[in-house]
TrEMBL record:
<dbReference type="InterPro" id="IPR052158">
    <property type="entry name" value="INH-QAR"/>
</dbReference>
<protein>
    <submittedName>
        <fullName>DJ-1/PfpI family protein</fullName>
    </submittedName>
</protein>
<dbReference type="GO" id="GO:0006355">
    <property type="term" value="P:regulation of DNA-templated transcription"/>
</dbReference>
<dbReference type="InterPro" id="IPR002818">
    <property type="entry name" value="DJ-1/PfpI"/>
</dbReference>
<dbReference type="Pfam" id="PF01965">
    <property type="entry name" value="DJ-1_PfpI"/>
</dbReference>
<dbReference type="InterPro" id="IPR029062">
    <property type="entry name" value="Class_I_gatase-like"/>
</dbReference>
<feature type="domain" description="DJ-1/PfpI">
    <location>
        <begin position="1"/>
        <end position="166"/>
    </location>
</feature>
Length: 210
C-alpha cells in the first residue's frame, strides 16, 4: 500500500501529519514523502517545521493513495506546471487521490475537480470554484467513481483519512485506528466554521460577514 504525500515549500503541517497518523497504520503501508529531491528538508508555511523528503518526486510515478496537503505553498504552486503534471500522472495510477484544505486548489488546477462538488478551507472557496468545482461546506466529499476524496480545512484531514481507511480496509479497521489515536474531539469552543464562529473571532481573522 504505497501512500504518497507531495512535499512543497509552504505546506500546512497538520494537513499532512494528521492523515499520516491514520494512514501509516494501514496493512503494508509504505509512506512516501515526495519532494524535489530525496533528503531535502522542506519547510512548512510558517517556516517553523520541516519534513524530509524520502524520495525525489521525479522517481515517484505511481501510488495506491496520493494525498495532497494544502498551505500557502499550495496557493502559489497552482502555477507550477511540473507539479500539476506530476499530480495528474500519479492520479492515473491511484486507487484514491485525496486533498486536504487548499490542496484542493492543486487538484482543481490539475483539472481533476471540473464539474464536481468539492470542499476546501473556507478562505479558498472563490479560487476553488475558479477551476470549475462547486464548493460544498462538508468536512469530507467523496467521488468513488472518480477515485477522489476531498477534505475541508486542516483538521478535516483526520476525518478524511478515517473515511479513506474504511474504503481501503473496513469500517472496523478505521474505528480501530481512531481508537488507537484516541481521536475523540471535544473542542472547548464551537467556532470551527464560518456558520458557527462568533463575530469577534471572525474579526480577529479579518473575516467580514456578508
Amino acid at each position: 500500500m504505497r501512500i504518497v504525500f507531495p512535499l512543497f515549500d509552504g505546506f500546512t503541517a497538520l494537513d499532512l501529519v494528521g492523515p499520516y497518523e491514520i494512514l501509516r497504520m494501514l496493512p503494508g503501508a509504505e509512506i512516501v514523502l515526495a519532494g524535489e529531491r530525496a533528503g531535502q528538508a522542506v519547510p512548512d508555511g510558517v517556516n517553523g517545521l520541516s519534513l524530509v523528503a524520502t524520495h525525489a518526486r521525479a522517481e515517484v510515478r505511481a501510488a495506491d493513495v496520493l494525498l495532497v496537503p494544502g498551505g500557502p505553498g499550495a496557493r502559489r504552486d497552482v502555477d507550477d506546471p511540473a507539479l500539476l503534471e506530476w499530480i495528474t500522472a500519479v492520479h492515473a495510477t491511484t486507487r484514491w487521490t485525496a486533498s486536504v484544505c487548499t490542496g484542493a486548489l492543486l487538484l482543481g488546477a490539475a483539472g481533476l475537480l471540473t464539474g464536481k462538488a468539492a470542499t476546501t478551507h473556507w478562505s479558498a472557496v472563490r479560487e476553488l470554484e475558479s477551476y470549475g468545482a462547486t464548493y460544498t461546506p462538508e468536512r469530507v466529499v467523496t467521488h468513488p467513481g472518480d477515485r477522489l476524496i476531498i477534505g475541508a480545512g486542516v483538521s478535516a484531514g483526520i476525518d478524511l483519512a478515517l473515511t479513506l481507511a474504511a474504503q481501503l480496509t473496513s469500517p472496523a479497521h478505521a474505528q480501530a485506528y481512531q481508537l488507537g489515536l484516541e481521536y475523540d474531539p471535544r473542542p472547548p469552543y464551537d467556532a470551527g466554521s464560518l456558520a458557527k464562529a462568533p463575530a469577534e473571532a471572525k474579526a480577529l481573522l479579518g473575516v467580514v460577514d456578508g
